[in-house]
Amino acid sequence: MIRPCTDSDVSNIYAIVNDAAQVYKGVIPADRWHEPYMPLEKLKEEIAAGVEFCGYEDGGQLAGVMGMQPVQDVTLIRHAYVKTQMRNRGIGGKLLKHLLQQLEGRILVGTWKAAVWAIRFYEKHGFELVSEEEKNRLLKTHWDIPERQVETSVVMVYKGVRP
To answer: Which regions of the chain does DSSP assign to beta strands (E)?
Structure first.
C-alpha cells in the first residue's frame, strides 16, 4: 500500500534513507559521503522546505519512501529509497508511478553520476539525461546543493507517458 507520510513517520524515513544510502558508500566521491548519510536535522529541513514523502507499506511497516517537491516551475523527485532487504521487488517503481500519476508539468530528478543503477532505474521509467550545461543550470536553479555536488551529479527529465 502506498500512502502519504506524516510527521509520525520521520524516524522511519530517516532509518530507510540511511539504510538504503549505504549503497553509495565507496561509489560517490568520498568528500560527499557522510555518516549518517542524511542527518535527522537535514531530513527535517528538507520536509520544512516542502519535500512531501509518500511511503510504500509492507506488512504495516514502511519499506520505501519517495519525495516530491514543487520548486518554481517544476516538480523534483527527491530522496527515493527502499530498505536494503526489500530491494528488487518493484517498490521504487510503484512509488515513482504513484507520484507521476499525481504530478503535472515538468518533472526532474537528480542523482549521483556514479549511481549508474539509479540512472538506469529512472531511464526505465521514462526519464532522460539532460546535457551537462542544462544540468548545471537546473541544479543551480532548483536545488540547494554545494558546488561539489553539482559537479558529481546528473539531472534527468521525465519524457515518458503519464501512467
So the answer is: 2-4, 52-58, 61-71, 74-82, 106-112, 127-129, 153-158
Dist CA 110 CA 112 (whole Å): 7
Is residue 21 included in any domain, yes or no?
Answer: yes
Residue whose C-alpha cell is 509520525: 8
Task: Give the range of the structural domain holding residue 49, as residue numbers without chain letter.
Answer: 2-158
At residue 66, φ and ψ (nearest 5 deg) are -155, 135
pLDDT digits (tens, 9 = 90+) for 65-112: 999 999 999 999 999 999 999 999 999 999 999 999 999 999 999 999
Say which CATH number the domain at 94 has: 3.40.630.30
- Spatial CA neighbour of 68 closest among 8, 150, 158, 151: 158
Reply yes or no: is the peptide bond before residue 70 cis, omega within 30 of 0: no
- How many structural domains is the chain composed of? 1
Domain assignment present for residue 40? The answer is: yes
* 109's grid cell: 530528478
Domain-located, residue 163: no
